[in-house]
Amino acid sequence: MSPVFTTADLVDEHGDRLLVCDTQFREFGGHRRFSGPVRTVRCHEDNGLVRELLRTPGEGAVLVVDGGGSLHSALTGDVIAASAVENGWAGLIINGAVRDSAVLAGLPLGVKALGTNPRKSAKNSAGEVDVPVSFGGITFRPGDSAYADEDGVAVLPADSGTSK
């Protein structure tokens, strides 16, 4: 069952407290609407940390991956996304590319990314986990609440006083 919200209604309800990402993502996962507490990874053309984190219990979290907007190689594919499903992650928001898009479409997971590339990324685990990441005119911080649907991505900061 999809979460009961729309990002448009959240904007109406929360006004300027709700941060709206300007990045125009494409939909890749089987769930078009997803939400949860934010976890983050900052990496560049290396998905080792993404793979490691998605092998841990997600507890309904949304992993926001700042890949610097690179489309040179994929930061997730079918195997890593299947691991996210198995471990209870709600979704992925990737400022970068994915691969295995046909398989991703059939997984019960939200996946938003900039595009696709069949090329694998490095696996050196270079980068940072659970640090603030910024793209699309907003900053995603661990513990914020992320909401994604057909209209876009929005974040309610943990310090805003309310969350849905």
Automatic annotation (TrEMBL):
It comes from the Bacteria. InterPro entries: RraA, RraA/RraA-like, RraA/RraA-like_sf. Its EC number is 4.1.1.112, 4.1.3.17. It catalyses: 4-hydroxy-4-methyl-2-oxoglutarate = 2 pyruvate; oxaloacetate + H(+) = pyruvate + CO2. It is an enzyme of class 4 (lyase). Coiled coil: none annotated. Homotrimer. Belongs to the class II aldolase/RraA-like family. Catalyzes the aldol cleavage of 4-hydroxy-4-methyl-2-oxoglutarate (HMG) into 2 molecules of pyruvate. Also contains a secondary oxaloacetate (OAA) decarboxylase activity due to the common pyruvate enolate transition state formed following C-C bond cleavage in the retro-aldol and decarboxylation reactions. This is 4-hydroxy-4-methyl-2-oxoglutarate aldolase.
